[in-house]
């Protein structure tokens, strides 16, 4: 197996841990349930909303992983970063759409499973990633991509998406 394929497989462990293993452990420790115990039709509406959030988040995550692999020629993992700055698709609206996809999925899980524990994990995941991006990721991108990244950073917000996509002008 090629090293790039091995790196891609290894890097997929990051979202598996964040979205399946840790939430699964939280549900195992706190008790598995679906919904918030409000009865029908409310629980059905809440579970559907959670499922839609999970689906949107997983789609967003999959799209950004594909862009990293095919456009950026790297992975989502810090040990195998992209070789080209990715500034197309959802990256034209927000600098961290991959983490946004993970956050949407975690929020959907907390809603669908009625889990305050997963919601706390969602908040912790956001805080840790926010600090990581400011202290490590962004300085690393500035070193790797220089002025190209600085222009992108100036025009595309970190977390709150732009309504109009950035065109690079």
Report on the architecture of this protein.
The chain is mostly helical and 169 residues long. The chain has a single domain (3-155), classed as Four Helix Bundle (Hemerythrin (Met), subunit A), CATH 1.20.120.1630. The chain is 66% helix and 0% strand. The chain contains six helices and no strands. Helix 2 (13-30) packs parallel to helix 4 and helix 3 packs antiparallel against helix 4.
Task: Give a quick rundown of the structure.
The chain contains six helices and no strands.
Describe the SSE topology:
Layout (H helix, E strand, L loop, with lengths): L2 H9 L1 H18 L11 H29 L26 H16 L3 H30 L1 H9 L14
Helix pairs in contact: 2-4, 2-5, 3-4, 4-5, 5-6
What about the largest sheet? none
Quick one: CATH class?
Mainly Alpha
CATH topology: Four Helix Bundle (Hemerythrin (Met), subunit A)
- Secondary structure class reads mainly alpha
Helical fraction equals: 55-70%
What's the total count of β strands?
0
Q: Kindly estimate the percentage of residues that lie in beta strands according to DSSP.
A: under 5%
What is the molecular shape?
A: globular
Oligomeric nature of the chains: single chain
Radius of gyration: 17 Å
- Give the number of domains: 1
Mean model confidence by pLDDT: 93
Keywords:
6 helices, 0% strand, Four Helix Bundle (Hemerythrin (Met), subunit A), 66% helix, 169 residues, globular, mainly alpha, single chain
